[in-house]
Model the fold of this input.
Amino acid sequence: MSQLIIFDTTMRDGEQSPGASMNKEEKVRIGKALEKMKVDVIEAGFAAASPGDFESIVAVAQAVRESTICSLARIVDNDIDRAALALKSAERARIHTFIATSPIHMEHKLRMTPDQVLEHAVRGVKRARNLVSDVEFSCEDAGRSDMDFMCRVIEAAIKAGATTINIPDTVGYAIPEEFGRNIRTLIERIPNSDKAIFSVHCHNDLGLAVANSLAAVANGARQVECTINGLGERAGNAALEEVVMGVRTRSDLFDVTCNIDSKIIVPTSRLVSSITGFPVQPNKAIVGANAFAHEAGIHQDGVLKHRETYEIMRAEDVGWGANKMVLGKHSGRAAFRARMDELGISFETDQELNVVFARFKELADKKHDIFDEDLQALVSATRSIDDKYELVTLEAHSQTGETPVAKLSLAVAGQEVNTQSEGSGPVDAAFKAIECIAKSDASVQLYSVNSITSGTDSQGEVTVRLEKGGRIVNGLGADIDIVVASAKAYINALNLLENGTNKAHPQASV
Ligand code: KIV
Ligand code: ZN
Done:
């Protein structure tokens, strides 16, 4: 059996999903969870995108010691140098550099001839190889690239020192049988293909990202690039949990083994969802709330008599049921800090710890059992000192037959301002009251409410996606009271709009 390398790009390609940006601390938390899951390679970002991305890669490289840490870089000197610099303290560092090879990208985006692209690829790979020993090279838009040309470029990239060759289906155009065949052809036709690991990176525009990845594995690919929950641009990337459970469950078809500790899958899925504000649909394979629920009587009967009649995987093997009650009202600071530590959440100062601990106590007064998800939500929703807006109080009134009203007190840069607004419902009234003060001009693109755990005393976790001047942010808020959670999420989104900076998109032309 050969080893299938699992390469997670939740923090790079996943983050390219509109509004899914993560800050440094959040990336460290996700990085620690991925390390615990035994992910082989973690793509922590695109170092040249912004100073924030650079710092996040540095922080992940310092905090995560077991997995290889990778930064993306275009075939551009500055990108490659920034990637190497960000990875300096990594135990194992990889530079992932790429250039487009499809006729449409070369002509319209790069405005380069195929020979120029080949020359750039070789120069870039050599430069990266002089800085680190582990270099991945990707032919962007390989799914629409000419086979003969790709063979030439890849052969040259391996000769220049690339140790992994990645074949991305950038626009999600491939069909499994064809994609698998192409991977086999590349491996067979490229004379030095045995000197590199072949990898795939599939997007889900036709809903085939996982199917294409598995077809590639069946045809010789030994690395799959994927994201938690299938997060990613447009329709997303191949979902890590589906790829891993696919090869495990059908080990009769796939002659590979992978290192992943599948019990960490569900907690990590929850963590990524809570940090990014992208909820997981209930019927999502493996990590959706219904993935192991049996509704029909006949199925329940079968499962009770013999589990395998209707179940091909065990819920506990992917981490369902791991969210045991962890803390309660009487838990002290030491127990709180220890549990946070286990979740990969650390506090730089005692003051930071005190703020979150105080919020925990407030929550424990209202909610009997506190689960890991509640703790993660507490941290995700904790405001930063740079925040301009802070919710002071909110009183929402709604009654059948009457127009809902929200009375709000908001601190704006430390100054308390009071207002009240009517709305079509209490949440709408609260948002209008906030806007009455903030006058942000942002438009609401998405409003979603999720319960963090089960039970009617669960905290509601709200995502509010705001757009302003082309920038999109996801604000998060959690509270037992859904109207308060909604107001917190709206305010969080406003703060993100105020604080954030634009970053370069790696796939935009240089
Ligand atoms: O989809 C893609 O082509 C990518 C590359 C940068 C690897 O994300
Ligand atoms: Zn991609």
